[in-house]
Structure formats: structure tokens, C-alpha cells
Amino acid sequence: MRISRTTNNGVFINTSILKQNIDVIKSVIPYKIISVLKSNSYGLGIENILPYVLNKVYKVAINDCEEFIEHKLYNYPLNFILLFPEIDPDTISLILSYKNVEISLNSFEMLKILSEFRDKKINVHLEVDTGMDRTGFRYDENINLPGNINIVGLYTHFKNDDIEDNIEQIYRFYEFIERNNIDLKGKDVHLLNSAGVLNYYKLRNIKNEKIQFVLNYMNSVRVGILQYGIVPSYRYLKLKEELSLKNCIKIKVDFLGTKLVKEGESVGYTNRYFYQAQKDTKIGLAKVGYSKIPFANKLLFDVVTDKRRFITNSIGSISMDVIGFDLNLLGENEEVKEICLFSENIQIEEIAEKNGYPVYNFLTSLNSLKKYVYGGDEISKNIE
Predict the structure, then answer these.
(1) What digits encode the pLDDT tens for the residues 227-286?
(2) pLDDT value at 26 more than 50
(3) CB within 8 A of 33, min separation 6: which ones?
(4) Burial degree of 23 (CB within 10 A; 0-12, 13-18, 19+)
(5) Is 139 left (phi over 0), alpha (psi -120 to 50) or beta?
(6) Who is most buried in 137, 279, 328, 356, counting CB within 10 A?
(7) Which of 194, 210, 243 is the last residue of a domain?
(8) Same domain, yes or no, for 127 and 276?
(9) 100 within domain boundaries
């Protein structure tokens, strides 16, 4: 076995591409951008993303008060929407002590608690449940708001990226507005998420009075993984390429070395029933596994040597800490300099499609990996 360990490994975030992606989104859709940085920016780290999008977005959406305080977001000069705020009175009181917080009002239970703060003017985004059947007031419900509740925004969440379902949910959003006699003027109206942004022109061209009424009042969109140059599903890859959106993250992993697997031998725990070499095969060993990334049986590796660059497949089963990959292309006098699971040459969406799970799984599993931000080829800042 030949040993050739690499260094400086972790998640690398190209902030130049991140900012370019936001510029692309703003150029194709005529609405203000609400950057969704919930769940610690989908695992990438709020502190790694927020400073670079700060001057390019309208507002930021996060999970809750805990996330707001942990990352000291009260120090930033823009408003934060708490999508899933805690509903106990003590935490609500703490939330209301900050001027740059807006609360997602999404249940009668929360409404009852907020109504008890009679001396406080509370800015809320009213969430309408139009089919997600999760949080939000049902589209067929009536609500009565006390005088201390100030609606600064209304929104819903699309349950998938199917255009017909999107249309039905917009109908229901319209029904809720009509039922409750809500004036949309001067309010943030945001229905579209990342998938909705990609479907925007299809929706815009639908000749329906109710659809157009809602879209005409819509003035902002919630953008999550799209700002990282990642689309919600594999079927949007062509559109992603047409829009010139680019993946802004790569995951560099340790290269442990090479090994020769003889014809008929297997790699990993599940022996010949999972993978059996059809010929003598040179493999590489990467120090990464399901302790760091989601369990996946089909991965691609971007291999950089001292002479060239190529893409190759994983071999055998993924284990907790080691993955094998095909290195038959590696020459005898060639040295591996870098291996990446994701990069500008490997589409995360393709990996997710091959393994049959949502692309979000990859991002939200990266919390334990070291993060780096850089503006070009060289690392400029190590956040953690």
C-alpha cells in the first residue's frame, strides 16, 4: 500500500461564487431576496455565509431564537425572520427585546401567547398552510388578530416542486387572503422557495386572475440552497447550467493511499455480493465515511494529481471512516495531491439522485467537518 496523505481538509466555501449566485438569482427574478440560513446555513455555518450575503439580500430567515442568540445576529444591520420561534412566554419576551427580529406567526397557540404582550407591537409574518399540513394557519380558517400584532409579511411553503401543486397552493393562499380580508399592500409577500424560483416563469405565464393577483403582490422570495448553486432536484440541472449557477462548495478529504485489489476480491464489509473486482484493480482510500457524510453507496471523487485531474467512482461499500475509489487511471509515477467528494466538477444533485435521497441531506450532515471560506484559489479565512 502506497501512503500519500493530503492536508487542509474539510468543507471549502467559495464566497466569490456564492455572491455571484445571488446576483444571478436577482437578475432573473424581479423580487427581493430573503436568504434562508436556517439550521446553521444548512450545515455550512451561519458565520461562514452571512457576512458575504449581507449586502446583497433583503432579509434573512433562520430557525428560532436560540439560533438568533447563538450567532449574535442582533449585531447585524438587517432583520431576521424566525421561521419556527419558541412559544414559551419567557423566550418570546426575550425575542421581543431585539429590534431586528420578526416572528413567523403560525398557530393559534402562539397567537394566544403573543396577544398577552399587549404593550408590545409585534412584527409578524403570517404563515398560511396551503397544503404542507405542518405549521401555519389553514387556508380555510378565520383568524382575529389583536391590536398589538402587526402583519409585516405573509407567506406559505410549497410542499414540492410540482407546478400543478404550486398552482393549487397559490389558489388556497388567495382564499385565505379573501376569507380574512387581508390587505397585501406594503407587506412582504413571499411564496416561492428555491424550487419556486426555478418555476417562476411557468407560474408567471399562467393566465388566471387569482394566480396573477397573488404574484402581482408578491415582492420577495426565500432562497436557501439555490444561493449555494445547488438545485432542489436532479431535473433542474439543465436549468441550473442555463442560468450559470455554480456550486460554491467542495469537500476535500484525506487521501490514505493506494492498494491493489486482485481479480475476484472484494472491497469493504459486504464482500462479493456488493462489489467484486473483475480484474486486478488499483484503488484509492479516502478517510471519510458515514460518520461525516450521509450513508451512500454510489459516490464520485474529483482527483487532482501532480499531472492532471479526473473524476472516478467509489468502489465497495461505504464504512464509518473509509471509502475506496477506482484509481486505475493513476500512473506509476503520478502522485495524488487532492481528492474531493464535491467540487465544481461534481454535481451534488447527481450524487443525491444516484443514492435516492434529497440533496439537503448532504448539506445538513456537514456540521462536524471543518469549514473554510475563500475568495478564489487560496484560503483566506479559517472560521472554526
Answers:
(1) 999 999 888 999 999 999 999 999 999 999 999 988 888 787 765 545 678 888 899 999
(2) yes
(3) 22, 25, 26, 56, 57, 58, 220, 221, 223
(4) exposed
(5) alpha
(6) 137
(7) 243
(8) no
(9) yes
